[in-house]
Structure formats: C-alpha cells, structure tokens
Amino acid sequence: MALYMVEKRFNDVVLLDLRGRLTLGQETADLRARLNQLLEAGQLRIIFKLEGVTYIDSAGLSTLVACHTSARKRDGTVKLTHLTSRVRDLLQITRLSTVFEIFPTVEDARKSFESAT
C-alpha cells in the first residue's frame, strides 16, 4: 500500500494526514519532497497526523527524523499527532519519543504553536 498524504491548512499551520505505509522507497521520498516544498514556501509549522499509518520500517523512522531535522534547520517545527499504539511503541523503543513533540489530537498540536509565540 502506498503512502497517501492529505494536506490541510490552518492559517500558518500545515497538517499532513499520512495514510498507509511509511517504508523505504517512493513513500519516504515523497514525504521528504513534500516537506521540503513546504519549507521552501515558508511553511514552518507542520503537523504529521499518523493515525492512518499502518506500518513504519527503519527507513520510515529515518525519514521522520530527517523531516524533523530539515524543519529545525529552517527554524521550523514538525509535530506528531494521533499515534497508533504500534507507532507510539516504536517511537518509545527507539527513544525517538524524546525527539518529537507528540500530541493526542491535531487541535492540541495547533494550540501548542499558538502558545509558543
């Protein structure tokens, strides 16, 4: 199953609702490319909704880290929301849960951007 990205905008916050598998190949390349397009367009507040992600491999984890790093280099932020129990466990096992800001809902993540300003 391919990775689908549904994009929504809330003023200066972009939500990428990811659905499918985040694995080595076109899926990870597409996500990195889309994130870079957003950053180049000046969109620095990004939320990844992971509720629809059914599987993440090591390349998928690496892509999430690369997205986080790319955003940070441009003074941007990538926040994660709606983690499935499988994704949450994976982030905890790899200790990546300490790297990302993780929120239970999109609204919580959006509000965190507001309180940061």
Strand order of the largest sheet: 1-2-3-4-5
Instruction: Please tally the β strands and state the result.
Output: 5
Helix amount = 40-55%
Task: Name the CATH homologous superfamily.
Answer: STAS domain
Estimated structural class: alpha/beta
Shape: globular
Q: How many discrete structural domains?
A: 1
Furnish the topology, listing elements before pairings.
Layout lengths: L3 E7 L2 E10 L3 H15 L4 E12 L1 H16 L3 E5 L3 H9 L7 E3 L2 H11 L1
Parallel strand pairs: 2-3, 3-4, 4-5
Antiparallel strand pairs: 1-2
Question: Describe it for me?
Answer:
The chain has helices at 26-40, 58-73, 85-93, 106-116, and strands at residues 4-10, 13-22, 45-56, 77-81, 101-103. The protein is an alpha/beta fold and 117 residues long. The protein has one domain: Transcription Regulator spoIIAA. The protein has a 5-stranded mixed β-sheet, sandwiched between helices. A hairpin with a 2-residue loop joins strand 1 and strand 2 (13-22). The longest helix has 16 residues, at 58-73. The radius of gyration is 13 Å and the shape is globular.
